[in-house]
Automatic annotation (TrEMBL):
Key words of the record: Membrane, Transmembrane, Transmembrane helix
Annotated TM spans: 7-25, 31-48
Protein's UniProt name: Uncharacterized protein
The organism's taxonomic lineage, starting at the top: Bacteria, Bacillati, Actinomycetota, Actinomycetes, Streptosporangiales
Superkingdom of source: Bacteria
Transmembrane helix is among the record's keywords: yes
């Protein structure tokens, strides 16, 4: 976890998943905000694994 992309990606992924769950249980704004955040976080994590420089 020394790469900053991994830390940023993990934070966005965790917050995105929390918002998706909250959106499924209630407010649709949380769902539509959480999905892009989870995708963004996953992209950062994949980027840190594929280009580890």
């Amino acid at each position: 976890m020394s790469d900053i992309r991994m830390v940023i990606g993990a934070l966005f992924l965790v917050y995105g998943v929390i918002l998706v769950v909250a959106g499924l249980l209630g407010d649709a704004v949380n769902l539509w905000t959480g999905i892009p955040m989870a995708i963004f976080g996953t992209t950062f994590i994949l980027w840190s694994h594929t280009h580890p420089t």
